[in-house]
Amino acid sequence: MYNKAFVTMGLIAAMLMTGCAGKAGAGAQAGATQTDAAQTEATAVEEKTETEAGAGQEAAAPETVKYESTDGWSAVYEKNSIEVIEDDGVYFSYIGKADGVNQINVKYYADQMPDEVLYNVMADENGLPEHTRSEGYFGKGTDVWALRTSMTSVTVENAAEDFIAVERNGGTLLVQITTTKQADEMTGMGVSDALSAVLDSLELKDQQPQTYSANVPGKYVAEVTDQIDGQEVKAEFYVQFNEDHTGVIHMQDDVQVIWYSREGKVLDAQTGEQIYEYVVEGDMLYLTDIAAQDPEAIEFTKEAEVETSASVDYSSAENWVYYGVGDDKDIDLFLVCPTVDLC
Q: Residue 327 above 70 pLDDT?
């Protein structure tokens, strides 16, 4: 849903076919008297034409190259339209005919988290300029989350700059996309297609679990009491936030949601519209309906995770329970169990 940094407009090609109806008459009868030699010649010409067309298509096939960075990421680009430059980061620059600057810059910032990196590259002496924010999955999977911003470029005339910041193994991989507005729509589509192909191909090697907002996932519950026909009725609400940023809010109905790391935004997964705000403080989650006239936060408490045998360190003696076998408590025979419940 959030994978693409550009929205590439599709082309609808209409095939126009024309036909001519032959008139019946004496001239039409001549076609029936074509010789076998003429038919053979026509077939040979047709085969030659198809062969030449196939050779032309093969020659026009794009040549793709895979770039692999020492920082553990890779991307694929089309050599005839993209040039790679290693400078302050790695630039994938569009070399086709187009106005202005059109490029992707990928750079890794060690020991810096996404918010810090975004601020440093976007801010000037007056702080952050006007910009929009969003979040979403990075690449084609759903296991890596990214923060996104977009703003008007302050260094390139008539251009926009989009930033994708990915927490990666203790640092941040920043993808900066600069695109200049094109006067010709077809040219703009060519630029967008070429750069989008690079973005779609980005892959991360040896990506470790992200720690940014790692305290949020879990199940939070709340017991609420309501008056129905003069009687108190109790109900259990809950908020389930998953590690992949999906979730469910269960109150009157179940609502599938997407939760953001920044600013506590909760979006309806079906419509993409924000419907709630949340704040996590320790084991407490406070949820507010942004559509309410006088919104009051509902307080939820995080459920403790159930400890399974896979999460217990059995190499430590304190995690084992010893039970004597027989009536004599001093005998040397013991039954050894990892937990009381299993003995």
A: no
List CB contacts of 243: < 8 A, sequence separation 6 or more.
217
Give the Cα separation of 169 and 299 in Å (integer): 33
Using the structure block, give the residue that is written with the tokens 């998953």. 242
pLDDT of residue 76: 97
C-alpha 174/C-alpha 5 separation (Å) is 13
For residue 106, give both structure tokens: 């990928």
Smallest CA-to-CA distance from 176 within 203, 205, 201, 147 is with 147
**Count of helix runs (H) and strand runs (E) in the chain:** 3, 20
Least confident range from 30-39, 98-107, 302-311: namely: 30-39
Sheet hosting strand 103-110, strand order edge to edge: 82-87, 89-94, 103-110, 171-180, 159-168, 145-152, 132-137
Residues 6+ apart with CB under 8 A from 163: 118, 121, 122, 148, 149, 150, 174, 175, 176, 177
Tokens representing 331 are 């005998």
Interatomic CA distance for residues 224 and 236, integer angstroms: 6
Distances in Å between the Cα of 333 and the Cα atoms of 240, 322, 341 are: 47, 10, 20
d(CA 207, CA 71): 11
Alpha-carbon distance of 69 to 90, in angstroms, equals 9
pLDDT at residue number 229: 75
| CA dist., res. 268 & res. 246, Å (int) | 10
DSSP for 203-230? Answer: EESSPPPP-TTTTS-EEEEEEEEEEETT
